[in-house]
Every structure is written in structure tokens, then in C-alpha cells.
Amino acid sequence: MRIRVSPLILLVILVPSLAMAAIDEVTVQLKWIHQAQFAGFYTADREGSYQREGIDVTFLPGGVGIDVVSGISRGDVDFAVMGADSMLVARSRGIPLIAIATLYRINPFVLVAFADSGIHSPYDFVGRTVAITEGYNHIQFEMMMNQLDIGMTSINIIPYTYDDTAFLQGDVDVTVSFAAGSLLSLRQKTGDRPLRLFWPDDFGVHFYADTLVVHEQLAADRPDLVLRFLRATLAGHLRALQEPESAIDATMDYAHLQDRSLQYEMLRASIPLIHTGYDRIGWMRPEVWLDMAALLFDHDLLTEPIDVDAAFTLDFLKAVYEEDD
Amino acid sequence: MRFWIRLTLLFVLVGLFPLLLLGLFSYRGGKDALIEEARSHALSISVLKEDALLEWMEGNAALLESVAARPLVVRLTEQLIHAKRGSDAWETAYQELLSDHLLPNRLSGIKDLSILHPATGQVLTSTNPVVEGTFRESEPFFLHGREQVFIDQPRYYVSQERLQIHIAAPIRLSEAAAIGVLTCHLDLEELGRIVRLTSGSHTSQDIYLINLSAMFVTEPKFGKGFVAHRMLNTVGADRVLARERGVEVYDDYRGIAVIGAFRWIESLSLGLLVETDWVEVVQPIRRLANVLIAGGAFMGVLVLLVAVVFGRSSVRPIHRFIAGTAEVGRGNLNFRFPIRGHGEVAQLGLSLNHMTENLEAITTSRDALNREVRARTAAEARLQETVSALRASETQFRLLTDASPVGVFIFQDMILKYVNPAFEIIFGYRPDELVDRLSLMDLTHPDNRQHAHEYISHCLAGTKDLPPFSYTGVRKDGDSIFCEALATSIDYNGAPALLGTIVDVTWRRQAETELRLKNRVYEGSIAANSIMDVDGVIRHVNPSFLRLWGYERDEEAVGKPISAFLADSDEATSFLNSLQEEGEWTGDFTALRQDGSTFISNGHASVILSDANELLGYQSANLDVTEQRLATTRLRRAKEITDSIIESLPGVFYQISKEGRFIRWNGTLEHVTGYSSDEISKMHPLDFFRDEDVDNIEEAIRRVYTHGRAEAVAGFINRWQESTPYLFTGALRTIDEVPYLIGMGTDISELKEIELQLRRSMDELTRSNQDLEQFAYVASHDLQEPLRMVASYTQLLEKRYKEQLDEDARDFIHYAVDGANRMQRLINDLLTYSRVQTRGRPFDVLDLNRALGIARANLASAINDSSSVVTHDELPSVYGDESQLVSLFQNLISNAIKFRGEHPPRIHLHTDEGADMWKISVADNGIGIHPDFHDRIFEIFQRLHTRSEYPGTGIGLALCRRIVERHGGNITVESSEGQGTTFRFTLPKLDKEAS
Which ipTM was obtained for this model? Predict the structure, then answer.
């Protein structure tokens, strides 16, 4: 179902006092455990952005065994942060979710080799051992090789075990890593020995990562709430980019057990993924959504071709940024 | 505060104030000059930096363009693209391009020269091996670089882990499409160096660039790792991103106050900020301020010392003078103040000495005064003897006046000195309350006191033959009495006094007043009064009588018999007989005026008897009652007409009292209900209703008394308990100050039947509309989704398999996508059209000027692109749906732009005020419409031109007509080919809508 909300959003803009008459309690399911990956949300909370929008927010951490999709499809949570790929797959299974903004517009998924390994480009992967995770990352890798016309059979692919020992010992030539996560600890382990990174984004494989998702029903019934929540969330992300130190303070309110300096590094690594310099924070491009859907369909992850236009809406983003302009 | 301290403070103030003022002005002046200089400096640096940046960027772009234009580069690129990767031809082209053309041009500032495939955006060869094989297919520099030289916005590249500004130039054979794209990115460190390089004298000067999102593009002086990882949040950033240029004082990214110049460089989409610490700018003037403060403090101490010494020496002689006056105060009259010099204190000393000498002399003459007092006491004793002699004479006078019935008084020095008992009785006082206590004025009414004063003055002056003075006196109990007084001047106890008499004339005055009033009543009465003798001859008449019977003077009426005043003279005899028998007579008669005209008079006459019961004559009082008698007749006739109207009314009529009693009703009520007149008079209105109708009618009756009127529909129950639907109306009417409910009930059985049929039709229509809406929804949703999928996946097909498809296949794909998009637009338009009625918002008062403003804003780019000029008269406010009226204006204006002629469109909105409607016209100078087509253009999907001539679905004007008609207006067109077009539409005026 295509959500048409613009007139209602206009109403909300024109009569903000009406929209904010009562406090709305909102629950947000995060994609992973509390960490700097979600610093923008924590900053919005700490600086009162949600409060100013009349929203009392609760963040639920994700983790192993927590199914983000079923939480939002059952209506247990109002908003969820999930991969754009997960959302498209859920949609093809008839779960009416809709993306309202993409927070990580560059996917942190990256392939890593030592700079002195003789691997200068993906063409050099041929005949080498590459450790890669199953699932969506595997698909992106396959697409990347396809773009370069490199046969998958020419590469020795082994599953990534979330342990970099084999790579550090030279048993694996290329390993998968995540820019705002495992790459930080990998760099600590490799010390001064330089690494070379290969980003699927550079090879025509554009895959949005952390995306803010709502149930279509909520977007249709409470467009005012969705708009206010998005407005506050984007304000929090902007503040986190302007003041990373205080964003880490906000993060530590939630991520008590994490190492502060590591969280700071994580945030610094995230900043270019959140905001590349093009477009506004959270903005989405229709052609990227179509590419993602086509790729997932190619790999039989979508049960049938979906109406990609209906999977995301720019209405809320436009409303937020038109207010600014 | 002591005088010498005040004096000291004054000296300090006078000495230091000019010094402080001078210092302050110097400081302020110097500071302003420094700030102004820093502002100008920052501004000029920003201008110079912008020039330097543009020069550097454009130089690099020119270099790239020249490399791309080399024939050898073009040929080798063509070879690289078409040869198989790894083949000899490919290897040769790859190596030659790299070694001969790309690597030698890696000049300072230019990095990663690369050649990209024109279709896929893949990097074919590059001076940076790492980027080889990567894809740039969606980057603006690639997409634009295929057409022309293009400098992109800075963007962060995760693979390079840095922000880069890309420049791209097409590689092509003459004007043909690009066969490759040559790109490079600029070294931002070099850019940073160019930006930071200054000859400024301020060590804190900081110059840096930010991008559209306030992200640092070059490293600021006091930040590390800010580029691409930090967004600027300062006033300077806000101003520069608002595309402004200027200088301001604000806190920078460190939170330190700076004087910052900001400048937006449009062509590079970069913001330039030049900032200098405020503290450093004002440093020189702070040193001056320190010198001024130190000098000021020294001068202050010096002035204070001088002031203390001077102050103390000035007050010393004053202290000595104070000690001298204290000595005199203690009684030492021999003390003399020592005189030194000629100053003010010496003058004061001389005065003190003089005063002391005088004081000594006064003390000596006190004894002579005591002797004078004793001589005066002896003279007073002799005076007492003379007074005793006078008192003996006064006793004789009192014996005489005590017996007088007239009030006698002696009045001296505005107080009563003597009154006799008659005086006391007249005014109701006891003797001891008057003499030596009250004045004659106290016994005179305040209104007469002025005259009393004048009279007393005349008497005392000895004026002869004064008449008695009549005035109103006031008794002790407050009653007013009329008095007449007479007085003369006498010598009493050696001083002038008044001896006078007072008589109470109240009873006489009252009798006179009563007579005058009676006469005035008789003469002034509006009744025509007359007095006749025993023979019925008129002896006296009043002015009303003369007026009523048309006589001018008494003599004309007096002496005539009563019969002369009656139309029927025979009546006079029976009138007199009746009077003699009954003693009085009351009734109407026809009176005859002097001019022969008649009138109806109502009169009352009675006999006048003497004390001995002897008949003296008759008196009569008459009024002209002609009008009243005529009005009564008219009223009776009007009632007869009203009665017949009420009886002939088709419904039931009723007049009901507030207590619920039927006062008046028509025969229809009896006929319809079957109740008799007697029965109705005993019934309550609610007896004719049952169930919930009882409450409805009770409420309606209540509303008549609270709101003035009401109506209700209810079943009217007759005596056989049959119910008939009736519409009852009621209004509050006051008759003889008593409120009544008056109204009528009408049988609405037939109307009810019609309403029922109408409701069935409406239900049918609503269902039909819902079906239509459902169809519109199906059209929008179920048709649009597959259409979008056709379009999306056909595009994907083209993108994925572009290389495998030939030109025809690409054309077919283009047609398919175009067709799908067109159909989508048609469906959307159809939906919009159908929703004008079904999804329109409720009407509200809105300003058409605002609606037009929104429409113009929506069309801003079309208006600008076509150089259109849109003008309008002041538009009115109307009652309507704003979004639809915006759509109306938008369609009419975009129509005018679309069908423009050779000249830039000129569109004018004109307003005319009609009686009930606003007439608004939208006139343009476009290609016009042939009159044959004027009817067709408002039909849905009717087009006068092919799609290739003018794009569109042909729904715009149909939509306009539907919107105008929903608002209760109509739309017409006036046009002929080549003469422009004027659309005219009407909208109801506000007051009409309100009514």
C-alpha cells in the first residue's frame, strides 16, 4: 500500500500545538546492543529533542536472538532500526513495513587485505582466500565480483567466523569487516602494518545499512507522530556530528559497560557513513532502493518482485527539511 | 556628612571626572577603530581567498580539459574501451595513457587522474592503482562530466578515507558523445594551504572552508581531524549556509569570541570563513586601557591629598566662629569675636559683635514697660461704673415689650441681644437659646439671607421709610414660616444696633396660594369647563372650552344658553331636567362648534348648591372623544376580519397562556381533534401528544418563552387516539402586557411522504458515490502498483543489460517506460478530478491572495524559466477549500505558460465585484483558442494539441471547472487564435455565503 500522507503532514506543520497536546510514549527497537552506532538517538534524547516534540522515548537494545522484524510487525515497538535489506525481505513476505529514513547511507561492510599482500584491487582476489559472512554481505560481495566480471569459482571463499586470527596469521588473504565495528579492533591488532580496504560501494554495489522503519499502519494513522519522531531523531544525529564528544556522553548513559574511547572511535568512523557530504542526513535515493530490491530478488531472497516505490517514503524527510529551508 | 569631607569629595570629582571621561573616550575610539580595521581586514581576506580559490580550481579544470582534448588521449581511450582486458591492444593503451598522459600531469594539487568508462562509470585506468576497477556510476561528477567540464561538491570517500573534490572532463571526438571521462580530485591539503596562507598580522587568524552541510572541508587552525568528521555549528556557519556574505562577532567552534568574515562561494558550493580572535584584535587597546587605569589611579591619590589639605584649611575660621556664637549663647554679652582680614568669616564676626551689643541695650529698657501696665488697670475700673447705669434703663424697655403680640428684637454685631416672648413663640425657641447665641440669619431661610443682609445694612445706615421685609423664616423644628419684619437703627450700649418687629404671616400666604392654585387648575385644565346659571345660560368658561367649541373670547360664549353648544338643541332640555333630578349627569353627546362643525364630547355635569342647599347653577367638564369613538369602531371591525382569517386558516390556530390554557383557537382545531370548544378550554396543549413528542413539544414551548419562537414536528393525537404528523410553530406575542404563545399547526403528512422518498434517493446516491470512490481507490492503488512495477523493472532491464541491447531495444524500453509513466499521470489526474467532490475539505474563509501566492510559489521555476510576468489586482476573501483554489490558480497560470506565444508570457488576474459574486479573470498573451473549441476545452481528457506539441493529460481545465462549480460559481473562456486567452470564473461573495 502506498502511503499518502503529505496533506496530514502539512496539517501537523501548520498546527504544531495540536500535535503536541499530549505526550506520546514511543518504543524504538535498535538493531544491535547499545553503542555509538546509535549515538544520534541518544543525543536526541539527552538534548531534549524528543521531549520538545512531545515524545517519551524508550530504546530497546537488539542482539543475538532478538528478531527486530517480528517486534515491529506485531506492534510491540513503534519504530525499528534495521538493515534496508531485512526490511525489503520482510515486505516481500507481506509484512507492511515502510522506510522513512536511512541513517547509514554507506554500508559499513568492507573487505580488508594487508597493503603488503600484493592485493591492489578486487581483480587480485582471484586465487586467494576470502573469509566472508553468509547472508546479505555475501550477496553484496557476489554482486561486486559480478560487476568486475570475476567468477566466484576463481576465489577460495570460506565462512567468516567473527575471529580475525586466520587473517592475522596469513591463512586468509581477504576478510570481511565492519567499518564502525570490527575494523576498529582489527586495526588495533594489526598495529602499524597498513591495511587496504575494498568497499562494495566503490564497485557499484550500493546497499543502505541502518534504516529507520515503521509499520505502514502507524504511518497512515499517526503521521504527526512519525514526523515528530523523525524530526527529533535527525536533529539528534546532526548534533552528534557537530559535537561528537557530547554525543559520546549521551551514548555512555546507555552503553555503561562499553569502553569510552572505543565508542568515540566508533562514532568517528560512523560519521562519513551517516553523512557523506551529498544530500541531507537520512535522505534516500529511489535508484538505490530499486537496485537493492533487484539484487535481493536475483538471489531468491524476495519471494516475488515488490513495488519498491511503496517500500520507502520521502514524505516525512521532505516535511522535516522543507520546514528548515 | 561633615563639611570638609564634602568639600574634599567635590574637589576629587572636579579633578578626576574630566580625566576619566577623556580616558573612556580614547579607549572607546581606539577600540572601535581596531575592530573596524579587523572587520575590513577579514572581509578583504575573504574576497582575496575566494578569487585565489576560483583561480586555482579553474586552472586545474582547464588543465584537465586540455589533457582530455588531446587527440592521442581520445584515440587511446577508445582503444582501451573496445579492447579485451589483458589483450595487447588493451595493455598498450593502458600503459601509454598512464605513462604519457596521466602520470606527468600529477601536478601539485591534482591527484588520482583516472579515465572512466562513459556508460558504466568504471575506472579503467588511474594514477592511483587502488581506485582502478571501482565504479563511479552514480557520482554527479561522472554523470555531468560526460557532458562538460564539471567541478563537484566535496564528498567523503570511505575507500580513500578522505573528503575529495572531483573534477571531470569528457573525452570525445569533436561534438559526439563522450567515449570516456577524465577525472581527478583536488588535493584538499593543498587547498587548505592555499586557504590558510595569509600575510595578516594576527596570529590567531583562522581560515577554513565548509561544505553545504557545514562539514569541515579544510582543517581549521585549532582543530585536528575535523575534515569530514566534524560539522560546524556557529553563527558564522549559519550565515554562510544562508548564502550570506558579511562580518560579525560570534563564538567559533572552540567557543571563543571571534571577528569572522563569512562568504558563500556559489560556483564551488563552499563556505569560506575568516576568523580572528576578538581578544587579539583588541589587545593593543587593552594595553592603553591599563596605562590609563594606572595613570588615573595615581592622579586620583594626588587629587585626594590636595583636596584634604585645602578642605581642612578652608573650614578652620568657621570653627572659630561657631565657638564664638556658643559663648554668646551662654550669656556672655561682653564677648567680642576677633576680626582678621576682610573675608566672609570676618564679615560674619562683625555681624555677631553688632548683635551682641544690641542685645545688651534691650535688657536695660524692661523696667519702664512694667510702669505702663499698672496705669491701664486703673482706667478699666472706671469704665465698669458707667456700664451699671446703662443696665437700669434696659429693664424698663423689657416691661413694655414682654406684653406685645408682635415679635420684638434687638440685633447688634450680628447676634440677637434681646427678644420678647412673642418672638420666642414665632420661632419656637426658649429664651436662653436665642439671646447672645443666634443671629437673625440663623432664623432666615438660606435663600433669603442675601436679601436679609441687604435689608439690615439699609436699616443700620439709617435709610428712611423702608417697607416691611417679607421673607421665609426657619423655626427651631425646621418648619418654614412666612414673616414680615420692620426695623430701625438705634444706639444700644453705646454701639449701633437694630430694633425691630417680626410678624408671622404664614396662614395668610397659604390661603392666597390655595386660591391661586384652584384657579389655575380650573383655567389650565384640558377639560372644557363651564359654569351655567339655573336657566342653563353659560356664565363662565375656561380656555379649553373656548378652544374646543371654536370661540376666541369669553364674551362670545358667555350669556348663550347651553342649547347653542349642542348639535341637537332638544337634548339641552333633557340634559337640564336630568341634572335637576339626579344632581349630576355623565355621557356622550354631539357638540356643535361655532363654525357649525360637530364633534363627539364626553361630559360630566353636576349641580352647584349653596350652603343652604339652594340651587345656584351647574358646572360641567367635557372632552373631545371623537377619535377614541372612531378607533373603537375600527378595532371592532378589525377583530371581525382577524376572526374570519383565523377561522379560514388551513391549519389549527391557537393562542395559549403561559400557564398552558387555550385562550383562543379556530374551528379547525375542534374539527381536527374532535374535541368541543368546552373540552379544549379545559385541556393542556400537551394533552394532544404522547410518548417522546410530549417532551419535544414541552421543550418547544419553553423555547418560545426563552428565544421568542420555536417550531416542532410531532404526531397530533385526536380524541380517537389517531396520530397525524403536524408541524407546529409558535411565537411569543405580548397582548396587554401579558405574554402568549401564538401559532399554527400544519398537517405535513404529504411532506413526510416526500421526505421519505427523498431520503431513499439520497441513500441511493450516497451508495452510488461510495461505489465511485471505491472505483477511484481501485484505480489509484490496484492499477498504479503494477504500472510502477512495469516502469521500474523496465528501467532496471535497461540499466542491467544496456550493453547487450541494441538501439531499437533501448528505444522500445523508452517507449514502454514513457507509456507507463503517462498512464500513471492519467490515473493520478483522474483521481484528482474525481476527488474534487468526494474528498474536498470543508469550506472556510480564505484569502485568495494567499492561495495565489502558494500557486505562484509552486510554479516558481516554470515562471522563471519562461520569463513569465504574473500580475494581479487585490483579490478578495471567499468561502472555500484553499487547496482546491490553489490548484485552480495553478492550473490556469500553468496553462497560460504552457500555451505561450513568441513573447514571454504576461498573465494578469483581474477582480470585479458583482452584486452577489466576485468575477475573477486570468488573461494571458498566449496562442489563444479558436472559438470552435471553447466548449470542448472544459471536457475531461479533451486535447486541442498533440502530446508532442504540448505535453499533458488534458485534465487541467476540466478540473478547474469542477472546482469552480463545487464553490458555487462558473467558468468561461474568451479567446481567439493568436489573441491570447481570458478565463473568467465567479465565486460567491462572503456575505452571500454567510446568509
Answer: 0.76
